[in-house]
Amino acid sequence: MNNSIAELITDRIDTMPPGERNAAQTLIANYPMLGLKTVAEFSSQAGVSSPTILRFINRLGFQNYPDFQARLQDELAAQLQSPHNRNENQQIQPDTAYPAVEHTLENIRETFHHISEKQLSDIVSALVAARGNIYLIGGRFTDPIAQYMAAHMTVIRPHVFHLSGQESAWRDRLLDMGKKDMLIVFDIRRYQESLLHLAETAKSRGVEILLITDQWLSPIARFARHVIAGRTGVPSAWDSSAALFVLAESVIREMTKQLEQDSAARIKELESLRLKRQA
């Protein structure tokens, strides 16, 4: 599988001069549609010159703008595929005893190949330093990961809440969200409109958004301060969320390290309360 343009940007953004970095960040915030506009429109929205846009796409490995746009069009088509479409277009399976395992392991390897230590460190530091509440939510298939992550985070720091139930309940929780809070959203193709509206409204209330998405990037990226992408595509009717689980566990592990004394105290107290309950 080719690297997505979002992955290429993650790999190279630290080496980009300021103008190209502006182009990269503007594209990520308007992914992928901005890249399908003309060079002039792209440059105007990014606040840089047209030559800067062309240098930016050259740095990503494209010879010209049409090649860059062709890749984005392929990604957009991949975003819109339904499980039925993917089932019809399955590739020939590799000659291994457990091909699904091989694809899943490759997804995990590629995910962490495209995530820098700094990116992960910045996200963990933001979660550790959050002064308010941390809310987690996912889509139809990813909400179990949000719930799993929330269950662990609740043990190591206070004020962590999984947003469950009907969409009306999510909107009610927005009443309590403000500038000190963070919202972690899991969203993979085909992206969920209700999550987009939730993130947009939370952002308007000053909430810091962390998006955990796939290599094609949920439109929630335009509202997120932090975006972290995991590989989900496999030759199957269904995407694989294994890499997202490993991402969640990596964040939990690093948070536990940074909150070493506080988390140890909370874990000890929690175990004490559980023993009292059993007595």
How would you characterize the overall build of this protein?
- With 279 residues, the chain is of the alpha/beta class.
- The protein is built from 13 helices and five strands.
- A five-stranded parallel beta sheet has the order 2-1-3-4-5.
- The radius of gyration is 20 Å and the shape is globular.
Please summarize what this structure is.
This protein has 279 residues and is an alpha/beta fold. It contains 13 helices and five strands. The protein has a five-stranded parallel sheet with strand order 2-1-3-4-5.
Helix and strand topology:
Elements: H1 5-12, H2 18-29, H3 39-46, H4 50-59, H5 65-80, H6 83-88, H7 99-113, H8 117-129, E1 134-138, H9 143-156, E2 160-162, H10 167-174, E3 182-187, H11 193-204, E4 208-214, E5 226-230, H12 242-258, H13 260-278
Parallel strand pairs: 1-2, 1-3, 3-4, 4-5
Helix pairs in contact: 2-3, 2-4, 3-4, 7-12, 8-12, 9-12, 10-11, 12-13
Tally the helices: what do you get? 13
Strand content: 5-15%
The portion of residues assigned to helices is 55-70%
- Number of DSSP E strands: 5
- Which shape, going by the Cα principal axes? globular
Largest sheet: 5 strands, parallel
Q: Report the uncertain regions.
A: none
Output mean pLDDT: 90
Radius of gyration equals: 20 Å
Termini distance? 55 Å
Biggest sheet strand line-up: 2-1-3-4-5
The structure class reads alpha/beta
Task: List the secondary-structure elements in sequence, H or E.
Answer: HHHHHHHHEHEHEHEEHH
